[in-house]
Amino acid sequence: MKSICILGATGSIGDSTLNVLRKHPDKFRVHSLTAHTNADKIIQLATEFKPEHVVVTDVDAYQLVRQQLTVQNTQIHCGSAALEEVVAEATVDLVVAGIVGNAGMASVLAAVQAGKTLLLANKESIVAAGELVMPVVQQTAARIIPLDSEHNAIYQCLGSEYQTGVRPDGVKSITLTASGGPFWQTEASQFKHITPAQAVAHPKWDMGAKISIDSATLMNKGLEIIEAHWLFDMPNQDINVLVHPQSIIHSMVNYIDGSVLAQMGCPDMQIPISHGLGLGQRLINDASFLDLLQQQQLTFYVADTDKFSCLQLAREAMVVGGTAPAILNAANEVSVAAFLAGQIRFDQIGQINDRILNAIQANQVESLAHLQDLDIEVRFKTETLINSQQ
Length: 390
Ligand code: NDP
Ligand code: MG
Description:
Layout: E1 2-7, H1 12-22, E2 28-35, H2 39-49, E3 53-56, H3 59-68, E4 75-78, H4 81-88, E5 94-97, H5 105-113, E6 117-120, H6 123-140, E7 143-146, H7 149-158, E8 171-178, H8 196-200, H9 209-217, H10 219-232, E9 239-243, E10 249-255, E11 260-264, H11 270-278, H12 292-295, H13 309-320, H14 324-340, H15 346-359, H16 368-388
Parallel strand pairs: 1-2, 1-5, 2-3, 3-4, 5-6, 6-7, 8-9
Antiparallel strand pairs: 8-10, 10-11
Helix pairs in contact: 2-3, 4-5, 5-6, 6-10, 6-14, 7-11, 9-14, 10-13, 13-14, 13-15, 14-15, 14-16
Bound molecules: NADPH dihydro-nicotinamide-adenine-dinucleotide phosphate and magnesium ion.
């Protein structure tokens, strides 16, 4: 019986994880669940799973949960510091990092510092803080198991060869596939007319709003290049990207002898999540089985970095290194939120990210506090730029 802490239990990754856990009550015990604003959902989940701890980071939502959650023996905590405490509890075996954005960074670092097995969906934290997190992994013997479908595909192909943050022997390069999002065939001249509703409607994956916009701009693939760099210790030139609109091949490992291993499946996050939770053992879930006869064609295209500038920006930030990925990531969080709020156009997301990445000097990453201060600075400068354009 593994004891599990789910950060971001009220989100899309939380939903898929809990769906898998419902199938395996004999294998997993929910130790803790966390939410930010969604009081109703965390009350419902805590009533169902009866965790030892619930953390609610938004103060108003916390007050509601305190008043309304009536499960005995569940302690309710408020604020982000409590996230770092629950992940480090001695009885926790697995931590699922399902918080969106930089808000998940401190808890990811805390889990790794506590030597836990971290099932990582929250790519932004590794993008911004990879330089801090990876040395700690080596010191504490923590493990990071990728849940992001591309990285989980590579982890599945590598099998026992995978060791967090170590380049596997015999690997020439890796290929991350990208669905291309809803607009990979749309003319760049039309980007200014794209509405938030159109951009959130991903053709293949059902996900939270932020990652859906990142998929539409291909920033998601850019963040995933940086994520792959840290998880598999691969340099920029050994990480390829291919647009594969069917989203059946989730990524590939290219070996020095010409062999290519790929992992396939229907686009359903329950598949990588069950694989991560199983730690080598296959677990059943509700995902559909792949029928290649129905699929008929698997196609591949080069990603257009002129049209999708965010993909190129991410590579540039990775090559600069230091705080550059954190700067790009924070700018992107603000520009995506501004697009969703109707403050900027779709085509401005990349332009704003570019301006901010080039306006702020990248330095060495010193500490979590350094990254958190930087995050505040970048957010302020990005918001100021956005406001100045209105
Ligand atoms: P959602 O928006 O669906 O869920 C986000 C979760 O994070 C919610 O539980 C939310 O709480 C919580 N949260 C939001 N802001 C904060 C905050 N400031 N402090 C603490 N918790 C917060 O996102 P997804 O589940 O789609 O994505 C989660 C992460 O997983 C992202 O990093 C994404 O890139 C990654 N990922 C997601 C995939 C997917 O299929 N969804 C696939 C691959 C990676 P509440 O709702 O209560 O406010
Ligand atoms: Mg992905």
